[in-house]
Amino acid sequence: MNKTNYKNIKNSSCINCLPFFKGSIHFAFFCFFVFVNIFPGIFPLSALAEEANLFLQAIQNNLKVIPSKSNDPIKYRLLREYGSMWANQSRNIVLPPQIAFFSEAETIAFHAKLKLEKLAGTNCLLQSSAANALVQAQKVATQKGLKISPRGSDSCIRSYDTTYKLWLSRVEPNLDFYVKGGKLSSKEANLIRQAPIDKQIALILNLEKERKLFFDKYRATSILNSVAAPGSSQHISGLAFDLAEYENPKVRAIMNEFGWFQTVRNDLPHFTYLGNVQEKHLPALGLKKFTSGQFTFWVPNIPE
């Protein structure tokens, strides 16, 4: 131990407060706290912060404004739910410059910047790099007697209006249900309906948090586990694909091999193109593995 560090310990409040804490378990914990702040490299108490920083570093050049839980809790929640997309380090793709678009005009302007390709035999549009990777995955799947195909007509790129309609398909029936059941007043429901979309998102998430009035299809969990908030869906980017054969582990492995990973918890068919990257490298981008049954999701490694 060098003299400087010894002097720091000797003069620390840990030593000065010894008579007060002596014989108490609090003394041990208090001195440990002081010690690890003097020697931060020995005890990595900041490991969680460092892991979160990996994600923030990965996305800092891809997202104009990175929200924090304190300054914008709603956008921070959206980043936590859908943010893996911004960890993509490929130079051949274009990422949305913001967490969410709040109008069709904004979305159209973004789509005008994209180089899109249609998957053969479908109306499915994806950014070129993502489409090429998917085509390569399809070729490998075919060689193995498997199939990779879109789950539906909206499996690839989506407009703002599409995401808004999906959102309303959960909001409207649930507002009616809660008003009819006396858990929400007609005045409250009307205020939600009339609110600008960003305010509406905040109001609904607050109802879920404070009053446990959930807005998913079965009113059992958050609406964000059922549909994305309008303008925040990864599908708007042209880097998301809903896979019909998502239940087949061999198909999922092929998708992973070509940079397609599940990144949205509870959305089993949903895959996101993360670039020319292998699964073993995803933690270095600040993504963490979340396992649910047989499914593995790679989500932002940031605090809830």
Protein described:
With 304 residues, this protein is mainly α. The chain folds into three domains: 3-38; 52-158 and 233-300, no CATH class; 168-225, no CATH class. The chain has helices at residues 3-10, 13-16, 18-21, 25-38, 47-59, 73-82, 104-111, 128-143, 160-180, 186-194, 197-211, 249-257; strands at 116-118, 125-127, 240-242, 260-261, 270-273, 287-292, 295-300. The strands form three sheets. A three-stranded antiparallel sheet has the order 3-5-4. A two-stranded antiparallel sheet has the order 1-2. A hairpin with an 8-residue loop joins β4 (260-261) and β5 (270-273). The longest helix has 21 residues, at 160-180. The protein starts with a helix and ends with a strand. 31% of the residues are buried.
Inertia-based shape: globular
Approximate strand percentage: 5-15%
* SSE pattern: HHHHHHHEEHHHHEHEEEE
The low-confidence parts are 1-45
Tell me the total number of β-strands: 7
Q: Please tell me the total number of domains.
A: 3
Biggest sheet strand order reads: 3-5-4
Q: What Rg do the Cα atoms give?
A: 24 Å
